[in-house]
Hints:
- The chain is an all-alpha fold.
- It has a domain at 2-149 and 192-260.
- It has helices spanning 2-10, 41-57, 65-80, 113-118, 122-137, 140-146, 150-169, 173-190, 197-213, 220-233, 241-245, 250-260, 272-283, 288-300, 307-320, 324-337, 342-354, 358-371, 376-388, 392-405, 410-423, 426-439, 443-456, 461-488, and strands at 90-94, 101-104, 108-112.
- The chain has a three-stranded mixed β-sheet, sandwiched between helices.
- Helix 3 (65-80) packs across helix 5 (122-137) and helix 22 packs antiparallel against helix 23 (443-456).
- The two termini are 17 Å apart.
- Mean pLDDT is 81; it is low at 1-37, 149-193 and 240-247.
Amino acid sequence: MTALVALALAFPPAGALPPVGAAYAQALPDLGDISQVKLSPAQERKLGEAIVREARAQGGILNDPEVNDYLNELGNRLVSVSPDAKQDFDFFAVGDGSINAFALPGGYIGVNTGLILLAQTESELASVLAHEITHVTQRHIARQLQGQQDGLLMSLAALAVAMLAARAGGASSGDAAQAAIATSQALALQSRLNYTREFEYEADRIGFQRLVAAGFDPHATATFMEKLQRSSRFLEGSAPSYLRTHPITFERIAEAQGRAEPLPYRQVTDSIDFHMVRALLRSYQGEAREAVKFFETALAEKMYNSEVAVRYGLVASLLRAKDLKRAKAELAKVERIAPPHPMIEAIGAHVLLENGEHDAAIRRIESALQRYPNKMQLVYDYPDALIRAGRNAEAAAAAERELLRFSGDGTLHRHAARAYSALGSKTKHHYHQGEYYAWHGNLRAAIIQMELAVRAGDANFYEHSVVETRLRTLRREVAEQQKEAFARNG
Length: 490
């Protein structure tokens, strides 16, 4: 698992798209089936899930349901247009300002927030996702593993863990030194793990087909590459490794333009979701008052593509600044000009919640859920609002009900644990808290919670059996990890 973490960290990002030497309609080359030798699709999915869980435990995944919902909607739009996508995909945001995107085993694709903010159109962002999706559908990760030496992978695994740990700690000079050592060694080894030119050729060519088939601007790839080239000029000497090993050249830009040139012009309108998500991410940057000033200036100078999104970003920034009176006033302005949208419903409920108007917030969320039942921000906000209002039994029931639809969702387990704790239900509190820890990658803490649930003594036979079964599963998983670690260390 950790070897694959390292492999994923070393892959070049989607932004640095390679050149291609043939028309986009050319048939796929026959690369054989060596990918079947080491990893089956089911194994890839399991490994990808384990890597994501580890990344979540280290704080590497942005826990923002609105951003992640949008990435999944955009990504699955690209997946749905091609018959080669015969597996599930999961897209998630990484809370990192650097420009990067990457594919993990099993259809997990991460996108840095820095890349989302750099993209000025939805088609530019889609061009990156289309490239990464193709790395998955063509099983490039499994093929790449086939050509690696175990010793190299284990070395990179150790480096990956060191970098994650250093980033998570971040406060001490020892952590900083550890990160510096790990980074320098990883850069020295990175060139040995880059995708082969053949893999990049496939991902670039098929990704372009996918982009066009999904209805996006075929010129977006070249446009985004130009942005990457311009941004790299200001990073001389400290540029990210992928820009040093995969420079964006004028030749590559020309080739991307050449692929799009034969196609007829198509005007592509960005979705409101794209602009809203970018505004939300921008509201997180810097100090709260700086974010407020940014959106105030954009409105005053009319520097925006979507007034609705900029005004929404201002409300989000005012909430962050705890200026509730003005946030409420600005929300009213947004609602006067905006079409119905789940993100506006959610932020409206948050304004009410922060202002202590719990019952009004609950009513707003209930109404919004009738229209947008699968929007995770609203799904999470409902039990949270009920808990804030002291309606813990309703909150527990709501969380349990949603867990039937979104099995294993850690945030819902956390809300259920809070509600049951307030109700004094020890078994259910510890069970759901344990499931939250397991989702978050902390299996030992999960086991402790399950042990407490077993001993709580306030469960019926069925509930007790569920907890005991889950405890055995977690213990077995930890034992298997220890066995694998022992085998690796000799």
